[in-house]
Design a protein that fits this description.
heterodimer; A: mainly alpha; Rna Polymerase Sigma Factor, Chain: A; 10 helices; B: mainly alpha
């Protein structure tokens, strides 16, 4: 579900499946299964190709898990990628590699976030309290860098929206957060989310419904009249 | 205008592109055509999700950042334990050698510092005690002998008591107050 597919003018457009990177690759590029098989036999080129193929997806997951912080997302994505390749021998091929990768990446990001929050609580308790209070910084902190957009008003607006979205996501339970994130940001279908999280499809649907309602309520000032 | 409460879930599924049942979709589209509230709410939700998605999209990784991340992963994977490579054993030997060096240094330092800490403590303890003079030390050394001598002296005094029952050295009550010439007189 890309941004244009959520466009009101095109409500019936279908989203791409998470195996899109493999499909986007040229016809001569090896598939995931082939690359995974070679990577498990310590083929450095296959590993490099897999990293190249899924790096941005893992980075995207990390970015949304770490509160939209780019440098933290890079560290988290690197940890998640390492976790994925350390556990590659455990991949049994019962699901698609991309599904398995999402599962490991989400778990790695959750672990990493938990660890970072624990340390943050110990080292910077005042910052942790501020985050728990729903604010993750001042408006100025959340304004994108000027070079990203020339219009200062839209910069401020984007910063405020980002802050409000983060605050809205913070109000969700862990499961609601994961499900909402995988659906809205990672564009997975409900069956795929169920496979990644190990929940039943009905449970995923319930979490998704509640999360959407909660986010809608939190962001009512951004809803067009 | 509010959306119909009984269509909330269908609305959400439609907005999230998860309305897969054709019959439900057909019914929903029929309802949408006639319900302004649901139609408006659907447009609002779609707009909101576009905004949320846009705000959560990560900034692009630069080529250098992507290369650095990929390099770190490849390095880790190359050097992971269990992987056999030509130079792998030497890399694994480095931590062992380092640990051995640290151990040796710790033991040597402990040996040297032992004197500094414990030795100084003993000297300090001795220094804090009062020093004895050599004659006093002799007394302490021969204390048992002196006690024995004291006992012998008392024994001699008991054995040497004369028949009159007087202890030598003690004055005789009968001759007390008399002059040596035998004239008795009361001493005032």
């Amino acid at each position: 579900m890309s941004a244009d597919k959520l466009n009101p003018d095109d409500p019936n457009a279908r989203r791409d499946l998470p195996v899109a990177p493999a499909r986007e690759a040229s016809a001569t590029a090896p598939g995931d299964d082939e690359l995974v098989r070679r990577a498990r036999n310590d083929d450095p080129r296959a590993i490099a190709q897999l990293v190249d193929r899924y790096q941005k997806k893992v980075y995207g997951i990390a970015y949304q898990f770490c509160g939209f912080d780019k440098s933290e997302a890079q560290d988290m994505a690197q940890e998640a990628l390492l976790q994925i390749f350390r556990n590659l021998k455990r991949f049994e091929g019962r699901s698609q590699f991309s599904t398995w990768l999402y599962r490991v990446a989400v778990n790695a990001c959750l672990d990493s976030r938990r660890r970072r929050r624990r340390w943050s609580h110990i080292l910077f308790p005042w910052r942790a309290e501020r985050q728990e209070g729903g604010s993750t910084g001042t408006v100025i902190d959340n304004i994108p860098a000027p070079e990203e957009d020339g219009d200062p008003l839209s910069n401020v607006s984007a910063g405020e929206l980002k802050r409000d979205v983060m605050a809205a996501l913070d109000t969700l339970s862990a499961k609601q957060h994961i499900v909402f994130q995988l659906k809205v940001f990672q564009d997975l279908s409900i069956p795929e989310i169920a496979e990644v999280t190990g929940m039943a499809e009905g449970t995923v649907k319930t979490h998704l419904f509640r999360a959407t309602q909660a986010v809608r309520a939190q962001l009512r000032r951004w809803v067009a009249p | 205008m509010q959306a119909c409460r009984n269509h909330n879930e269908t609305l959400m599924l439609d907005v999230l592109d998860e309305l897969t049942d054709p019959r439900v979709r057909r019914d929903w589209e029929g309802h949408l055509a006639s319900c302004t509230g649901c139609r408006t709410e659907k447009e609002r939700m779609l707009h909101l999700l576009v905004q949320v998605r846009a705000s959560g999209s990560p900034p692009e990784l630069s080529d250098a950042e992507a290369r650095r991340m990929a390099g770190a992963v490849s390095r880790e994977f190359r050097n992971r334990p269990g992987r056999v490579s030509g130079s792998g054993w030497s890399f694994r030997l480095v931590p062992a050698l380092a640990a051995a060096c640290v151990l040796v240094i710790t033991v040597m330092a402990g040996y040297w510092l032992q004197d500094s800490f414990f030795g100084a403590g003993r000297v300090g303890d001795l220094a804090s005690e009062p020093q004895l003079e050599p004659p006093d030390l002799d007394v302490v050394k021969h204390l048992d002998l002196l006690r024995d001598m004291d006992t012998i002296e008392k024994l001699i005094q008991i054995v040497d008591i004369p028949d009159n029952g007087l202890v030598p050295g003690e004055p005789n009550p009968e001759t007390q107050g008399t002059q040596p010439d035998g004239n008795s007189h009361v001493v005032a």
